[in-house]
Amino acid sequence: MFRSIAFLLFLLLPSLAFAQSCSFSVANVNFGAVDTLSNNPVNTTSTLTASCTGGLLDIGKRLLICPNMGTGSGGATSAVARQMLNGTNPLNYQLYSDTGYSVVWGSSTWSYPSRAPAYALTMALLSGGSLIGASGSFTVYASALGNQPTAATGAFTSSFSAADTAFIYSYSSATTCAAPSGTLGSAPFTVNASVAANCLINIQNIDFGTQGVLRANVDATGSVTATCTPGTTYTISLNGGTANAAPTARKMAKGAETVTYGLYKDLNRLQPWGDASTPGSTVAGTGNGTAQLLTVYGRVPPQTTPSPGVYTDTVVVTLTY
């Protein structure tokens, strides 16, 4: 009689493939202080990082990533300008995918024509030999746009939620993100900037021309142009010139000889324009982001005429804000 028994053999094999999975992060975009009166853009960069895993059968596959970025909480006025907000006050900026700051980083989920850049990663055996995946870092180029002198002062921000960062990825041979499909990921981030109070000043000199005997008033004008950020209060003062004289007794000089003159705030030459040493003689204003022209009224009163020649004085204009 024969008896037999069978061995049951077991072998557990791990799955050779599983769906790819990606995680993303985007560093916050911080423009820092933006000088809106310079009319120059302020550029900075951020970094998008992707980390993906897969299975053995995924080795060598091409993973297409379409990192859509929408308008953010600040919205967008057009395909040209996204916006950060300070309350209801906007500050225009844009995100780009190229070093030339010309290709707008867009989204397949918004109404503008710009689309996300297409990034491709190749799945491979990762260091250590225990995982299959791919990772990469991509630069986001950002610009706070120039020519915004009427922007308000303060802190501006725009938040990109998961809805604004629809990052779609899949194995694909496509080279664009015109109509992406696949698995959805996201990477919320914020965009920040600050606009500080600022003022610029320009002047036009005063020329009393060529005169003979100083027996009547000689009038001429110059100007001070103040350009200040909206809501910024300022004061403009004129010092006493080289002789450090009172506003209506300044001196143009040629050597030891002088010609007395005055500078005024009004056409009738009744309100002297001076500095803090003469109370009430300065000029105050509030900026609106545009150039504000202030006329300086000059007068040489009748006086004993000195010898012929060129008489000059230098008056320091100070804008305080």
- Tell me the series of helices and strands, N- to C-terminal: EEEEEEEEEEEEEEEEEEEEE
What is the general shape?
A: rod-shaped
Q: Helix tally?
A: 0
Query: Approximately what portion of the residues adopt beta-strand conformation?
Result: 35-45%
The overall strand count is: 21
Uncertain parts: 1-18
Give a short account of the largest sheet: 6 strands, antiparallel
Radius of gyration: 35 Å
List keywords for this structure.
321 residues; six-stranded antiparallel beta sheet
What does this structure look like?
The model is unreliable at 1-18 (pLDDT under 50). A hairpin with a 2-residue loop joins strand 17 and strand 18. Strands 1, 3, 5, 6, 8 and 9 form a six-stranded antiparallel sheet that branches. Strands 14-15-20-18-17 form a five-stranded antiparallel sheet, with no helix packed on it. The relative contact order is 0.17. With 321 residues, it is an all-beta fold. The chain has no helices and 21 strands. The radius of gyration is 35 Å and the shape is rod-shaped.
